[in-house]
Amino acid sequence: MRLKRFLRCLTGQLAMLAIIMLGGSQAHALSLVGADVKGAFFLNSGSNNLFDEEFGHVPATGFGNSPGFPGNGGTTVPISDSVVEFGYEGAPALDLFTANFTGAGGVILTATGVPSTFTHVTMTFGSSAFTGLFFTPVHVDGTNNNCSFATSTITCAVTAGPGPGFTSTYSLSSTAQVPEPASLTLLALGLAGLIARRRQRA
Question: Would you say residue 22 has pLDDT above 70?
Fold first, then answer.
């Protein structure tokens, strides 16, 4: 009789664990691959979008907004893990600003230099795919660059110096919470302890 009761209890607890684990697996990982993102780069409060190859500051190749491979020559490009979406190339110092989006929601901004003539740089990135996501700074290199988020648009402000450049990373993430492996491990250990205790009583 005790054995039957124990088995019923064990079966119920294992079923509960399975439901929790399956419920967690149904929360899909964020994927932005293929989503269109529009980028803009404005220098010193100017009105020309320098991510547009029309103004002569987009590298000829190598970026999503490049007129040559693998780019489309536009200011709206698809997010791809194999391509850096946006590039700006200065002259004559060739200071390079890039914005790289990953399918998993990473945003990596880099600048090889921020000349003193760049009193203010504003970059904006907008996508309907960003709606409902959270935006979190992961690592901000230096104090002359920062990004904020509103609804579906990322706005980044850059001022000259300090330092020769920066690589700052941010993250876009969904609100869905997946059970952490550590939490599941603790639950499994708790069930194991309960089983061991019941065995001792039997």
Answer: no
| Burial (Cβ within 10 Å: 0-12, 13-18, ≥19) of residue 93 | exposed
- Read off the DSSP letter of residue 20: H
With CA atoms as reference, report the closest residue to 32 among 130, 126, 103. 103
User: How far apart, in whole angstroms, are the C-alpha atoms of residue 75 and residue 165?
Assistant: 24
Pairing state between β 121-126 and 134-139: unpaired
Q: Give this prediction's pTM.
A: 0.73
Confidence bin at 116 (pLDDT 50/70/90) = confident
Q: In this predicted structure, what is the pLDDT of residue 91?
A: 78
The answer to whether the beta carbons of residues 184 and 192 sit under 8 Å apart is no
The end-to-end CA distance of the chain, in Å, is 10
CA distance 115 to 176: 41
